[in-house]
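A.,

Following up on our hallway conversation. Structure tokens first:
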């Protein structure tokens, strides 16, 4: 069976100041698609400090937004026991879309 509800947008930023506006825009579009196609929720994935994916995912319950930070996972795996803070210096903070929180109910 072909999944016709698949929706994914890649967001790539050049400056930190663009992050909130670009993620908010992508989230609003994804929420609109989720409301048209009940079933999947919205998954926001951080791949690195400049690249994010906002997509509909059947792994996320309908009506929720979840975050996955792959960049922090990679940092945690590569941090040495002599300098565990090295991960934190390179990773930055977890994504926080300004209008939504993780696992936020999006039903309208």
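Then the amino acids I'd put at each of the 108 positions:
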């Amino acid at each position: 069976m072909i999944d016709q509800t698949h929706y994914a947008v890649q967001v790539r930023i050049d400056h930190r100041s663009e992050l909130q506006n670009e993620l908010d825009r992508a989230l609003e579009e994804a929420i609109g698609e989720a409301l048209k196609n009940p079933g999947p929720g919205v998954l926001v994935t951080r791949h690195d400090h400049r690249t994010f994916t906002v997509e509909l995912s059947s792994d996320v319950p309908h009506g929720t937004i979840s975050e996955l930070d792959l960049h922090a996972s990679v940092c945690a795996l590569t941090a040495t026991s002599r300098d565990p803070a090295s991960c934190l210096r390179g990773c930055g903070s977890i994504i926080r879309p300004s209008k939504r929180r993780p696992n936020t109910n999006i039903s309208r």
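The longest strand covers residues 51-61. Curious whether your intuition agrees with the design.

B.
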